[in-house]
Amino acid sequence: MIEAKRLACSRGAAALFRDVSFTVSAGEALALRGPNGSGKTTMLRCIAGLTRADAGEVLWKGSSIGTQRAAYHAELVYGGHLAGIKDDFNAEENVRMALQLRAVSRGDAEIQAAIDAAGLARRRSVPARRLSAGQRRRIGLARLALDPALLWLLDEPLTALDDEGQKLFGTILERHLARGGLALVATHQALPGAGAREWRLG
């Protein structure tokens, strides 16, 4: 469903990657691996349409993302390397805001259940600024569990998560793939539980 065709991108005079092609189909996860500075984040941004590649194109369902930008973005979730949450909002407020920005409607009970499953039941009313880095990441896991987007583009989603948090991410990812979703994940760690293919940069 998502295809990169001969992508190339540079940073100044230095080439990050070139002639990169791959396809990720429904029910699949692809882990982008490589050393720091190899272009994993840039690759994700190219796939998301946030960074223009020097060459090549990205296809979604067989058509260039440039010809269907609004429809394409409606079907994807992009998670950057930062947690992407508001410090003054608590877990429930952050999840609700993220879903509203994507025009996703979930009831109070669904949101509370996702927050509980993410291990934040006792911290649901605490402002995010008072949570640990791993707990802030868990807010993002609760959001992912509730978003129906088909395509996940995630940059280092396992950062700061403990063993249980990584296992939870693996469970959420497996459920996403089982319903026909797909994921492209930049990571320095093996993805838990998903049996992801790997593509190395650098």
Fold and architecture overview:
The chain is of the alpha/beta class and 202 residues long. The chain has a domain at 1-75 and 185-202: P-loop containing nucleotide triphosphate hydrolases (Rossmann fold), CATH 3.40.50. It has 6 helices and 9 strands. The strands form 2 sheets. It has a 5-stranded parallel beta sheet with strand order 6-7-8-3-9, sandwiched between helices. The chain has a 4-stranded antiparallel beta sheet with strand order 2-1-4-5, with helices on one face. A hairpin with a 2-residue loop joins strand 1 and strand 2 (14-24). The longest helix is centred in the C-terminal third of the chain and has 16 residues, at 163-178. It is globular and about 50 Å long.
Task: Supply the key terms.
alpha/beta, 33% helix, 6 helices, Rossmann fold, single chain, 202 residues, 9 strands, four-stranded antiparallel sheet, five-stranded parallel sheet, globular
Write the CATH fold name of the domain at 1-75 and 185-202: Rossmann fold
Helix count, DSSP H or I runs of 4 or more residues: 6
What's the helix-strand series? EEEHEEHEHHHEHEE
The 3D shape can be described as globular
Question: How much beta, percentage-wise?
Answer: 25-35%
The chain-level structural class is: alpha/beta
Low-confidence stretches: none
Examine the secondary-structure arrangement and name the CATH architecture of the domain at 1-75 and 185-202: 3-Layer(aba) Sandwich
- Output the CATH homologous superfamily of the domain at 1-75 and 185-202: P-loop containing nucleotide triphosphate hydrolases
Q: Overall mean pLDDT score?
A: 93
- Quote the distance from N terminus to C terminus: 25 Å
Broad CATH class of the domain at 1-75 and 185-202 = Alpha Beta
